[in-house]
Amino acid sequence: MTGRLEGRRALVTGASRGIGRAIAEFYAAEGADLFLVATGLKQLEETAEAVRAQGRRAEASAADVGDKAQAGAMVTAAVEALGGLDVLVNNAGVYKAAPFLEFEEGDFERLFRVNALGTAFAMQAAIRHWREAGAKGKIVNIASTAGKWESANQAGYNASKHAAVALTRCAALEHGKDGININAVCPGFVETDMLEELNVHADLAGITPEALRASMEARTPIGRIMQPADIAHIAVFLGSAESDGMTGQTITISGGMRMG
Prior knowledge:
The structure is a single chain. The chain is of the alpha/beta class and 260 residues long. The protein is 47% helix and 15% strand. The protein has helices spanning 18-29, 41-52, 68-82, 105-133, 155-175, 193-197, 199-205, 209-218, 228-239, and strands at 9-13, 33-38, 58-62, 87-90, 137-142, 180-187, 250-253. Helix 1 (18-29) runs parallel beside helix 2, helix 1 (18-29) crosses helix 9 and helix 4 (105-133) runs parallel beside helix 5. The longest helix has 29 residues, at 105-133. The chain is globular, with a radius of gyration of 18 Å.
């Protein structure tokens, strides 16, 4: 770690576990102070303690990013707590697997509410803050390879992640002139709690979860499933000055499972 985020103030959603927690810890290791958000405080406080153990400031707050008022209040609270905001990491997300005809209205609503609207509301609040303050900023959206390509039994999830990718590109096009860089990370299979939810695919295929995992690894040229740290490294780059020349990009990190 080389202090690539020294002095930066970052808001990370979905920070209680998995990719979000890894990003928070990596940001702290690189010198950032954090405002951490998730729907529940217990695990979130554990992430905050891990950040503080590295000598960085961490504030934890429960919020539902899919609620516009809460998303806006979250950004305002981060600015007030940290004395400003330099980076927004939209990591909060939910998953659902089912055959297309079995997706219920509520499934679509939940997926779009968190994965798409949650991303949009937080982006709007952060961009408004930076424009009013005359400040530059960076947004890192954690999307998915599902947001770039097709997948069986994931229509609702893929559609919501396609929306997150579209939001990234459109907002980047409009706000580059404001000094705001907006990019997305598109992970493939990652070793998180969400990976367990993929066992639905094993049931649908009539195979064991172990066989499903083996097939996932076989589809990945580097021969392993991604770890949260793999994603966190890219998020650090996108939050640092090293990525100042990038905006509107969707970076695939899937071990080569999908290329492009």
